[in-house]
Write a structure and sequence with these properties.
- The protein has helices at residues 39-43, 118-121, 125-138, 154-166, 176-185, 199-206, 221-226, 263-273, 291-298; strands at 25-35, 64-72, 84-88, 101-105, 109-111, 145-149, 169-174, 190-193, 211-216, 230-239, 254-257, 282-286, 305-308.
- It has 319 residues and is an alpha/beta fold.
- Helix 9 (291-298) links the parallel strand 12 (282-286) and strand 13.
- Helix 3 crosses helix 4.
- The longest helix is centred in the middle third of the chain and has 14 residues, at 125-138.
- It is globular, with a radius of gyration of 19 Å.
Length: 319
């Protein structure tokens, strides 16, 4: 938890009261908590102005998590104690998943799909739902060509996997050798190292008539450049919150969207996941006692996702 906004060293272990379960809530005993790329911004206070009420300290971070249902509200019929679930929540105002117990409204909870390890499920919800919503926004058709910019990141590596379910050709613009290897393993048709290769040349050689759609999960000049590779009727989309905001100065409009974390969104994701192998590529796992190190790692380079796992060796009792 944190007692004030600031750098990674503000994170510390402490005890607080368990969150209160409301009529439509599910209480989860956390077995895995996702580390979101946005966590460092929230920790520093960047999200505070977006909340309807000022943040309450001590503040427990964590928007993704998975574990065992231990209690349900009086109006909950979909879940029972003992169910293994994952969820997409927000840390404010009730606290997030960097804790032994987390409470989430049932609308944003789902059973962990068959074949998905709980450790992976804890870091899967938000980015998977956001990737799926992006592909839906682009209205992809089989045999089209999709370029995923930032394909080795959290949203991006899920988008590569989900796009295969749409039957599209995927050009993955990844970052570094580890990112390239990850996207190749996940089934990208063409993988480009955005750090070392000329993206325009590589894409033009593969798709000389242009690409049908672009999903921008990262911003910057290179991201804006790939918009010029679209066909005349091509589409581009980017989730809200990407910084810098994609599309500056581009002639192609970028459709901005939010991930659908509703029950219906989880249901659609479950159907897609059931159609083949699906994974959360965990670049690293940290015990709760190493949350400070985890947040330092968030500021560096990594491919895929990272997670806090309270049960791995070296973990102290979490808050």
């Amino acid at each position: 938890m944190i007692d004030r906004f600031g750098g990674p060293d503000e994170l510390h272990l402490a005890e607080v009261s368990a969150p209160v379960v409301g009529p439509t809530d599910v209480m989860i005993a956390v077995r895995s908590a996702g580390l979101g790329s946005w966590d460092k911004d929230e920790r520093a206070g960047g999200f505070a102005e977006e909340y309807a009420a000022p943040p309450s300290f001590p503040y427990v971070l964590g928007w993704d998590g998975a574990g065992d249902v231990v209690e349900v509200g009086s109006e909950v019929e979909r879940f029972s104690p003992g169910d293994v679930v994952y969820a997409a929540s927000t840390a404010a105002p009730r606290g997030g998943f960097y804790a032994e117990l987390a409470v989430v409204d049932q609308e944003h909870v789902a059973l962990v799909p068959d074949g998905i390890p709980v450790e992976q499920a804890g870091a899967m919800a938000w980015d998977s739902l956001t990737a799926m919503s992006g592909l839906e926004t682009l209205a992809l058709h089989p045999d089209e060509t999709l370029l995923v910019f930032g394909a080795s990141g959290g949203i991006g590596h899920f988008a590569v996997q989900l796009a295969r379910r749409w039957g599209v050709r995927v050009i993955a613009v990844a970052s570094g050798g580890d990112g390239v290897a990850l996207c190749r393993r996940l089934g990208a048709t063409l993988t480009i190292d955005g750090r070392r290769e000329n993206i325009t040349d590589a894409v033009t050689e593969f798709a000389p008539e242009g690409v049908d759609a672009v999903l921008l999960t990262a911003g910057g000049p290179a991201g804006d450049e790939v918009l010029s590779l679209l066909t005349p009727d091509g589409r581009a989309a980017s989730p809200h919150g990407v910084d810098p905001v994609p599309g500056g100065g581009a002639t192609v409009p970028v459709r901005f969207y939010s991930g659908d974390r509703s029950r219906a969104g989880f249901d659609r994701l479950a159907k897609l996941i059931a159609n083949g192998d699906y994974e959360t590529a965990l670049a690293d796992r940290f015990p709760f006692s190493e949350a400070v190190n985890a947040h330092h790692a968030l500021a560096g380079h990594y491919a895929g996702k990272m997670a806090l796992i309270p049960g791995i060796p070296g973990a102290d009792a979490p808050s």
